[in-house]
C-alpha cells in the first residue's frame, strides 16, 4: 500500500471503511468507567445531612414513632430519586454539548477529500494533515511538505519536530516517519496512512493506565461549598439552641425536640445547591450550543458574565469571509471589478494567482477561491498540470506570505503571494508591460501608496511576485524567496456580517469594549472599524508593538481599539496588558499560533469553521458559525445563567433562613414549635427542588446587557443579595407566625394552628418564587406565567400540599387538620404577604440603582 500511487489519490472506498470500522471500532480514547444508576442512587446517601436524616429515622423507630420513621424514610428516598434525576439530566446535557464539540479530521475516501468526526477515522484511512490540525490517530507519513509537529503532549518537549515521509524501500518506519494521536501540526502538510486508533495508539496506551480522572469543581461550586458549610454550621448551632430551648425552657419531650432540631437542620441547610447549580449550568451550556456557541468547560459560563473586553479577529468574525475580487493593479494601471477577466490580466499575474493557490473554483480558502472563481476551470487545471508543484513554503501568520515552486523545462518557477509590503520587501525588480525593470525604494513607495488608497476603502490587498531559478533548487527557503520580481496586486472585498453592527452596539451598551486584532493592512482595518463605529483611536501594528515595553503597552492598551498587521504571538502581550489592568478578556483565534493567547485569555474563543484543531483544543468556547454576534449573544447568555443562579440561591436561602427564624422565634416567645419534623422535611422537598430549578431556567432580562460587567472577583452573593434574603426571610417568618398565632387564638388546637402555619409557609414560598424571577423587574410586566416550568412546579407543589392536608390517611401522618373557609382565607392573604413585600421592595431597589 505504501507504494500504491493510486491509493494516495483515492484512499479507502466506502466498503473498505465500513469493514475496517466494524473490525477496529470507533477512534475513541478509553474513558473513565461511568457510574451505574444504582451507584448514583447509593451516592445520594453519602451526604452528611442525609446521614443525619437517617439517624433521625432510627431515633424515631427507637422511641416507637413508626409513622414518623416511615415518613422520614419516604422523604429520604424521594430526595435520592430527585438527586439521581438531576445528575443524569445534567450528564445528558453535557454529553450533548460534548458531541457538538467533537474534533474533525480530513481524509481522502472514494477519491474525495472529506471532513469527518475524528471518531470515524479507522485503520487504513488516508488522513490529510495541515498546519493547525490536531492529529487524531497514529500513522505513517507517505507524503510531506515542510512538516513540523508539536509532540509536547507525549514528550514534554516544546520545540516542534521535523518529520519526513517514509522511505518506500524501508521495511520499518522510524519515529521520524510517524505521527501520533494528540500531537499538533505546527507547519506544512502531509498524507498519512493510519496504523492505530483509539486505545491502540501511543496516547491511548497512556490513557488506559490513567482511566480515573478526578473531576475538578468549578470556582462557583467551590464558592457555594464554602457558603453551604458556613450556613450548615450556623444552622446546626441554631438547631441545637432550638432543641435546648424546647427541652429546658418549655419542658418539651427530648424525643420530639431532637427530631424537630434534626429536621430543622436538614430542611434549613441548602444541600441541594451544588446539584441545582450543576444542572442549570449544564442546561444553559446545552442551550448555548443550539445557538452555535459550544462551551467546552463549565467555568467558562461563570466568566462570560464578567467579560469587559472582547478582542476579535476581523476576517470571518466581523466580516462574512466571502471574498470577492474587485480590482487588480499591474503595469502601472488599475483594472476595476467589472473589467477583471481572464483576458484583461497579464499572463504572469494570472498564472501566479492560479499556481500559488490551493483552492478549486468551489472549495478551499475564501481568499484563494476569489482569485480563481472568475476563471475557466479548464484553464486552472491546465496551468497546474503543465507546471507541477515540487515544493512550497506555507503561509504563516508571522511571514504573511505563501510561496510555491514549480518545475518547468529543467528550471524552477518560484511564485509568492502575501501582504503587499511583505512581497515588495522581497522584490528587487518589477514586471512592466512584459519587461523586467529595477524596483527602487521610491517606486516601492509609490506602489504602496496606490495600495493604501484602495485599502482605505476597506479593501484587502494581496501582492504577487515571481522568479525563475536555473539549475538546482536552494536548500534554504530564505534563498528561494529573495530577489523576486513584483507582478502586481489584487484588491478584494469581504463585506461585514449584517448582524455585527448591532452586536458591537450591544457590547458598548453592556460596558464591554470590542477590540479588533487583525493581520490586515492598518488602513483596511481602520476602514472596517469606521463602518462599525469603533471608538476613534490610534491603529497599532506589530512593528510599533515591538518598540513598546510591557509597561508602556499596559498604559496605552486602554485607548487602542484597532491592532493591525498583528503577529499572533503579539496577541498574548495584548491579553496580558489588559489583564494587568484587572480586565476580563475574551480573545478569538483560529490558528496554531493563537493557542497561547487563547489559553491565557479569561475566555478563549476559537472558530468552528475556520479554526484549527489546536486552537479549538486551547479554547474555552467554540463559535460554530465564526460569528462575532454569536459571541456577544453568548456573553448575554453567560450573564443570564449567572444571574439566574443568584436568583435561585437567594430564593433558597431566604426560604431556609425563614424556616429557621420561624422555629427559633416561636420557641423564644414561648410558643410550641409551629411545625413538626415531617412538615419541615416535606416543605423542603416541595419548595427547594423544582421551583429553584425553574428560576435557573428564567429567560434573560434585557437590562442585563445594559449593566456594567460584574467584577471577576465579585462573590456570587453581595450585600445587595443578602439584603433581599434578610427582607424576604423576615416577611416569611412574620406571615407564618401570624398564621400560627391566629390558629392558636381561634381554636386553641396546636395541630390546627400548625396546619395553618404549614400551609402559609408552603404557599408563601411557592408564590414568592414568581417575584424571585427578577431582583428589579415587576412580575406582572414580565408576564405572570411566561416561565411555564415555574408555573407547573408551583401547581405541583400546591397539589402536593393539598394532598397532605385533605387526604385523610396522609393528613393523619402529617398531623394536619383541614382548615375552615375563614382560616383558608387567612392562609391565602398571609401567603401573599412575602410576595407583595418583595414587589414593593423592588420600587426602592430600582430607585437606588437608578433603573
From TrEMBL:
SUPFAM superfamilies: Calcium ATPase, transduction domain A, Calcium ATPase, transmembrane domain M, HAD-like, Metal cation-transporting ATPase, ATP-binding domain N. Pfam families: Cation_ATPase, Cation_ATPase_C, Cation_ATPase_N, E1-E2_ATPase. Keywords: ATP-binding, Calcium, Calcium transport, Hydrolase, Ion transport, Magnesium, Membrane, Metal-binding, Nucleotide-binding, Translocase, Transmembrane, Transmembrane helix, Transport. Its main location: membrane. GO terms for molecular function: ATP binding; ATP hydrolysis activity; metal ion binding; P-type calcium transporter activity. The chain crosses the membrane at residues 45-63, 230-249, 261-286, 648-669, 720-744, 789-812, 824-844. This is P-type Ca(2+) transporter. It comes from Coprothermobacter proteolyticus (strain ATCC 35245 / DSM 5265 / OCM 4 / BT). The gene is pacL1.
Amino acid at each position: 500500500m505504501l507504494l500504491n500511487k493510486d491509493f494516495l489519490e483515492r484512499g479507502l472506498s466506502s466498503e473498505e471503511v465500513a469493514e475496517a470500522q466494524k473490525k477496529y471500532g470507533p477512534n475513541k480514547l478509553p474513558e473513565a468507567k461511568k457510574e451505574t444508576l444504582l451507584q448514583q442512587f447509593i451516592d445520594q446517601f453519602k451526604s452528611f445531612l442525609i446521614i443525619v436524616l437517617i439517624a433521625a429515622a432510627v431515633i424515631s423507630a427507637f422511641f416507637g414513632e413508626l409513622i414518623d420513621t416511615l415518613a422520614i424514610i419516604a422523604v429520604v428516598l424521594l430526595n435520592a430519586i430527585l438527586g439521581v434525576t438531576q445528575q443524569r439530566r445534567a450528564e445528558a446535557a453535557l454529553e450533548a454539548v460534548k458531541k457538538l464539540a467533537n474534533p474533525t479530521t480530513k481524509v481522502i475516501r472514494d477519491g474525495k477529500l472529506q471532513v469527518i468526526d475524528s471518531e470515524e477515522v479507522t485503520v487504513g484511512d488516508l488522513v490529510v494533515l495541515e498546519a493547525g490540525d490536531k492529529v487524531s490517530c497514529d500513522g505513517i507519513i507517505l507524503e510531506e511538505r515542510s512538516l513540523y509537529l508539536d509532540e509536547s503532549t507525549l514528550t514534554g518537549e516544546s520545540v516542534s519536530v521535523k518529520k519526513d515521509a517514509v522511505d518506500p524501500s524501508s521495511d520499518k518506519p522510524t519515529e521520524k516517519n510517524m505521527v501520533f494521536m494528540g500531537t499538533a501540526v505546527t507547519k506544512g502538510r502531509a498524507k498519512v496512512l493510519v496504523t492505530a486508533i483509539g486505545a491502540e495508539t501511543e496516547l491511548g496506551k497512556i490513557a488506559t493506565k490513567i482511566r480515573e480522572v478526578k473531576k475538578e469543581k468549578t470556582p462557583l461550586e467551590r464558592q457555594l461549598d464554602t457558603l453551604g458549610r458556613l450556613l450548615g454550621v450556623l444552622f446546626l448551632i441554631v438547631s441545637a439552641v432550638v432543641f435546648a430551648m424546647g427541652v429546658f425552657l418549655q419542658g418539651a419531650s427530648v424525643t420530639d425536640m431532637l427530631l424537630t432540631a434534626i429536621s430543622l437542620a436538614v430542611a434549613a441547610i441548602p444541600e441541594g445547591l451544588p446539584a441545582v447549580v450543576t444542572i442549570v449550568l449544564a442546561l444553559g451550556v446545552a442551550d448555548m450550543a443550539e445557538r452555535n456557541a459550544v462551551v467546552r468547560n463549565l467555568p467558562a459560563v461563570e466568566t462570560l458574565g464578567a467579560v469587559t473586553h472582547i478582542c476579535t479577529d476581523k476576517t470571518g468574525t466581523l466580516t462574512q469571509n466571502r471574498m470577492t475580487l474587485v480590482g487588480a493593479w499591474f503595469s502601472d494601471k488599475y483594472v476595476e471589478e467589472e473589467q477583471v477577466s481572464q483576458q484583461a490580466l497579464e499572463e504572469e499575474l494570472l498564472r501566479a494567482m492560479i499556481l500559488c493557490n490551493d483552492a478549486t473554483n468551489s472549495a478551499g480558502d475564501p481568499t484563494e477561491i476569489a482569485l480563481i472563481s472568475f476563471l475557466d476551470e479548464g484553464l486552472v487545471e491546465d496551468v497546474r498540470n503543465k507546471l507541477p508543484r515540487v515544493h512550497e513554503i506555507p503561509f504563516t501568520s508571522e511571514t504573511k506570505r505563501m510561496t510555491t515552486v514549480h518545475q518547468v523545462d529543467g528550471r524552477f518557477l518560484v511564485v509568492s503571494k502575501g501582504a503587499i509590503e511583505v512581497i515588495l520587501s522581497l522584490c528587487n525588480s518589477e514586471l512592466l508591460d512584459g519587461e523586467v525593470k529595477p524596483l527602487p525604494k521610491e517606486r516601492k513607495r509609490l506602489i504602496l501608496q496606490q495600495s493604501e488608497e484602495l485599502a482605505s476603502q476597506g479593501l484587502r490587498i494581496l501582492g504577487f511576485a515571481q522568479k525563475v531559478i536555473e539549475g538546482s533548487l536552494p536548500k534554504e527557503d530564505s534563498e528561494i524567496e529573495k530577489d523576486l520580481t513584483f507582478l502586481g496586486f489584487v484588491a478584494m472585498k469581504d463585506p461585514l456580517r449584517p448582524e455585527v453592527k448591532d452586536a458591537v452596539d450591544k457590547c458598548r451598551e453592556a460596558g464591554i469594549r470590542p477590540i479588533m486584532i487583525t493581520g490586515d493592512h492598518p488602513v483596511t482595518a481602520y476602514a472596517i472599524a469606521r463602518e462599525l463605529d469603533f471608538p476613534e483611536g490610534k491603529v497599532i501594528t506589530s512593528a510599533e508593538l515591538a518598540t513598546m515595553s510591557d509597561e508602556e503597552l499596559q498604559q496605552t492598551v486602554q485607548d487602542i481599539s484597532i491592532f493591525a498587521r498583528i503577529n499572533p504571538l503579539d496577541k498574548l502581550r495584548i491579553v496580558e496588558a489588559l489583564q494587568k489592568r484587572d480586565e476580563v478578556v475574551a480573545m478569538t483565534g483560529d490558528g496554531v499560533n493563537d493557542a497561547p493567547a487563547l489559553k491565557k485569555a479569561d475566555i478563549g474563543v476559537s472558530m468552528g469553521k475556520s479554526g484549527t484543531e489546536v486552537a479549538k483544543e486551547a479554547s474555552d468556547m467554540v463559535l460554530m458559525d465564526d460569528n462575532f454576534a454569536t459571541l456577544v449573544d453568548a456573553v448575554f447568555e453567560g450573564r443570564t445563567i449567572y444571574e439566574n443562579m443568584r436568583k435561585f440561591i437567594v430564593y433558597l436561602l431566604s426560604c431556609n433562613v425563614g424556616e429557621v427564624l420561624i422555629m427559633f422565634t416561636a420557641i423564644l416567645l414561648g410558643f410550641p414549635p409551629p411545625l413538626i419534623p415531617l412538615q419541615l422535611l416535606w416543605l423542603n422537598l416541595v419548595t427547594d427542588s423544582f421551583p429553584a430549578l425553574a428560576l435557573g431556567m428564567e429567560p434573560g432580562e434585557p437590562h442585563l446587557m445594559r449593566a456594567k460587567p460584574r467584577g471577576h472577583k465579585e462573590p456570587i452573593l453581595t450585600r445587595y443579595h443578602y439584603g433581599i434574603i434578610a427582607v424576604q426571610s423576615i416577611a416569611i417568618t412574620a406571615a407564618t407566625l401570624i398564621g400560627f398565632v391566629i390558629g392558636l387564638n381561634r381554636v386553641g388546637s396546636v395541630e390546627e394552628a400548625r396546619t395553618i402555619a404549614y400551609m402559609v409557609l408552603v404557599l408563601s414560598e411557592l408564590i414568592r418564587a414568581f417575584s424571585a424571577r427578577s431582583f428589579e423587574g415587576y412580575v406582572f410586566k414580565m408576564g405572570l406565567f411566561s416561565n411555564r416550568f415555574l408555573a407547573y412546579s408551583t401547581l405541583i407543589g400546591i397539589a402536593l400540599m393539598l394532598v397532605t392536608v385533605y387526604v385523610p390517611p396522609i393528613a393523619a401522618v402529617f398531623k394536619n387538620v383541614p382548615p375552615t373557609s375563614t382560616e383558608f382565607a387567612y392562609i391565602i392573604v398571609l401567603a401573599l404577604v412575602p410576595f407583595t413585600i418583595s414587589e414593593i421592595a423592588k420600587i426602592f431597589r430600582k430607585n437606588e440603582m437608578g433603573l
